[in-house]
Structure formats: structure tokens, C-alpha cells
Amino acid sequence: MSPILLYGIPAGCSFGSIVALEWIGRPYRLSRISMPGVVTSDAFLALNPVAETPAFVTANGDVLTESLAILGHIGAQALDSGLAFRQGSADFDRLNRMLGWLNTTFFNAFGALWYVYEHDTAGTEKTALQEYGRSKVLKAHRQLEALLERGDGPWLLGARRTLADAYFAGIARWADYHAVFEPAAFPRIAALRARLADDAGVRFAQAIEENLPLPASSAFEGHVSLDDVLASARGIAMPARAI
């Protein structure tokens, strides 16, 4: 059985896991999960009780959640790809450090702005959250710009792309969505994003999200329903249906 990635729309961070699967090139399937609708359904909660995408059903039927765990699993299946590294190596440590920073600092910086988007805030509360959110996003971008300046290549970890770049592709676009700043404010980040935008795996993930005609893929085996996902997952009880 090929693994199944459950990805969230619109603009979920699960985008990065689609990119990673395309880069590795091994067979996989997808299941499309709308947010906040389907992601809070009993069917999805049977897979992930915290109502978040991505979720991932491995080839053995085990269920993984959280992007970093899923990316780690994907990378472990293709250590010869250069996208991930052997545990205990210096490159493994560098990759985990970057993924950790992207998750805890860069991703988290958008929290207040997403809260405003998802909740009915107004007045001084909305203004305060927006100002705080923009300051967090700007700080994270200043830090990343400095990291890229000290780097030794065009990608997050240097000369070669890694799973960190795949994850970044999914969350970097949030700055555009929330219109925090002009891209020219951070030229190294802008250059990395332009490089990613021209990547075949990123273009494929974009087409998946936007329901556009799909570019060629040697790995993608099609979409499956959430019911089919539940039937494939080990140890998951199918939710009762209303009669």
C-alpha cells in the first residue's frame, strides 16, 4: 500500500509534505481536507483528535501527525536522496535544527494573524493582535535573512535543497497572504522563494491545492476519500454514521 498524506486547504503547512513526497519520487496518494470544515469532523478527528493537518498514513497503516514527524518519516525512506540524512550525522543535526526553528519561530510568528483571520475580532483587540502579529513575522524574517546571509549556498542548509526547504515552501507564502511587507525588504528570502516557485515539486503542490491541471508526476497515484483513508489506517475506529 502506498502512503496517504491528508493535506489541508486553504494554504495549509501540509503543502511542504506534498513537495517532499514529489522530491523523493516514491508512490503516494493524497486526501483533500477542507479547513475548518472537514478537519473538525468526527471522521478526521478519528485520525487526529487535535483537528489539524497534515496527517499521514504510512505504508504499514500507521498514523502520523505533525509536519516534522511526517517529514522525518518521509526523509528516512530516502536517505540517498540528499533531502535528509542519517541519524547521528552532523547534517542530520543541522536539518533538525532548521526544521525546529522553522516550526517554533517562523511558523509560530503567524499565530496572531491567523487568529484574527479565523475569529470575529474587531476594534482595539483586532488592531493589537495585528500589530503584534506583524512584529513577530518581521522579527522571524529578519532572523532568517541573517541566517541566509551567513549560509554557504542558495538553499536553507547550503548548496543542496533539503526537507527544510520543502517545509519552508508551504509556510513562507503566508507573509503574502497577510500582506506584512514587500518582498524586496528581505532579498535573500525573496531569492529563495523565487527558486522554490520555479521548482517542479512546488508547482505540482500548488496545482494540487488550487485544483489546476496537474504537471507530470512519477509518484502521485491519485486522491482518495477520507473514508478510504480510515479504512487503510490501523487501529482507527470508523465513526458512527447518523441514520
Question: What does this protein structure show overall?
Answer:
With 243 residues, the chain is α/β, with parallel strands linked by helices. It has 2 domains: 4-81 and 201-232, Glutaredoxin; 90-199, Glutathione S-transferase Yfyf (Class Pi), Chain A, domain 2 (Up-down Bundle), CATH 1.20.1050. Helices cover 49% and strands 9% of the residues. It has 11 helices and 5 strands; from the N terminus they run βαβαββααααααααβα. It has helices at 15-24, 42-45, 67-76, 90-107, 111-118, 123-150, 163-171, 174-177, 187-197, 200-210, 226-232, and strands at 4-9, 28-34, 55-57, 63-65, 220-223. The protein has a 5-stranded mixed sheet, sandwiched between helices. The radius of gyration is 18 Å and the shape is globular. The two termini are 32 Å apart. The mean pLDDT is 95.
